[in-house]
Amino acid sequence: MSKAVIVLGAQWGDEGKGKIVDMLTEHSDAVVRFQGGHNAGHTIIVGDNKVVLHLIPSGILHENVECLIGNGVVLSPEALLEEMQMLQEKEIDFEDRLKISSSCPLILPYHVALDQAREKKLGKQAIGTTGRGIGPAYEDKVSRRGLRVTDIFDTQQLSNKIESILDYHNFVLKNYYNSEVFDPNSVLHDLLPMLEKMKPFVCDVSERLQEFKFLDKNILFEGAQGSFLDIDHGTYPFVTSSNTVAGGACVGAGIGPKDIDYVLGVAKAYTTRVGEGPFPTELFDETGKMLSTKGNEFGATTGRPRRCGWLDVVALSKAVRVNGLDAICLTKIDVLDELESIKVCIDYDEDNAMKPKYVEYEGWCESTLNIQEFDQLPEAAQSYIKAIENYLGIPIDIISTGPKRNQNIIRKEVFS
After folding, report:
1. What is residue 231's three-state secondary structure?
2. 276-288, pLDDT tens digit by residue?
3. Which domains occur in the chain, in start order?
4. Catalytic residue among 14, 22, 115, 230
5. Is the full-model pTM beyond 0.70?
6. Strand, helix or coil at 290?
7. Looking at the predicted structure, is the pLDDT value of residue 297 above 80?
């Protein structure tokens, strides 16, 4: 019997979703991205090869798996084509396996200019965006003035729309941000060759997913960013511009809630976040530096260093609630191997929500790298994992014990 599974970040992103999606794709017939843009970065290591994907679903590394970009994704033609070229250079065949929703909003150069000009003007109050035009593209979408993939099939209509949109955005760029403006003809001229290369991949993703369901095929939905960057449920205003929680899969791919069978939240054994915003368990000491160094905590998209801190099960409990998580995949437990003691935030101070209350656990001080059976983990590591399960009230079905595809403890087969 087929199954539809959502894999998403249960923290602030960078939890290791790419590896987990790549692993689960072995049992999938289709992988779907349903929100975000090329501000996401999913790193996959297969053997000695490292691949970083920003738009194309992580399942593209598997032959015979169809990869679909849903309508909830804002699409940069330039970024998409760069990623396609990277896959071609690595001799990864995708031409017959990649599909793009005709309803995807387009990210164009003026969105990037607006994004960067806005962050510059905000100064110390900047959100900490990737500067890639994601927010402005979503703004155009909800204001009903944006361009969508479907517009690329009528050049005259596309030209008229670009001229109309730039009449608005050029005014803002010039008069509010004191920035350079864009010539509509130049934008169109640069855009057309890229759009021609995109046309063969365009389809109705919602309809295609219905076909997969009818054919009793397994579908994997791949989230970008993390639950606490959700525009509604995250640490607003320090969030992204899309719904990163599980409900976003329905809206961003064109499926019904009853079509989802299982939701897996990916969380690190500690916590990180990139950019600005609240982070109650953040560490500024040697332990924080160790987590950053050993965990290689640098953004896959921007290269920015990630802020590191202890695991926060109060926040994770919210992720369980707003996503309806069935289980957790816990990653990077091996990064904690050297610590003599490990703290977990279980509450906040009544008078200061930024002051965590911790419970301390004994460290295991031995390697968990590449362990593939739960009972082979050090007893202290087993106790740490069981404690997290007790706090959250859901099981930890997968434990990642290293960055490579096969470095995992599988306690329950997701597609069983």
Report:
1. coil
2. 899 999 999 999 9
3. 4-95+204-410 (3.40.440.10), 109-200 (1.10.300.10)
4. 14
5. yes
6. helix
7. yes
Sorted by sequence, the CB contacts under 8 Å of residue 147 that are 6+ apart come out as: 105, 106, 108, 140, 158, 161, 162, 165
Report the Cα 172 to chain-centroid distance in Å. Answer: 30
Reply yes or no on whether the pLDDT at 31 is more than 70: yes
How far is CA 243 from each of CA 148, 174, 184, 221, 235, rounded to the nearest angstrom?
A: 19, 31, 31, 14, 13
Residue of 38, 42, 54, 111 marked catalytic: 42
Give the span between the Cα atoms of 405 and 387, in whole angstroms: 26
Q: Is 167 a catalytic residue?
A: no
| Pairing label, strands 271-273, 262-268 | unpaired
How far is the first Cα of the chain from the last one, in angstroms, to the nearest whole number? 9
> For the residues of 248-282, what is the DSSP string, one character each?
HHHHHHT--GGG--EEEEEEESSEEE-SSS--TTB
Cα–Cα distances (Å) from 32 to 65, 174, 292, 399, in that order, read 11, 38, 30, 23
Nearest partner of 79 among 102, 112, 50, 123, judged by Cα: 112
Torsions phi, psi of 140, nearest 5? -60, -35
The pLDDT of residue 302: 66
> Has 14 been annotated as catalytic?
yes
* Contact in structure between 83 and 48 (CB atoms under 8 Å): no
Q: Look at residues 370, 371, 372, 375 and name the one whose alpha carbon lies nearest to residue 403.
A: 370
Mean pLDDT score of the chain: 93
Provide the H-helix boundaries in 143-282.
155-175, 184-198, 205-214, 247-253
Question: Cα(68)–Cα(54) distance, rounded to whole angstroms?
Answer: 13
**DSSP helix/strand/coil, 402:** coil
DSSP code string of 56-82? S-GGGGSTT-EEEE-TTB-B-HHHHHH
Helix (H, G, I), strand (E, B) or coil at 153: helix
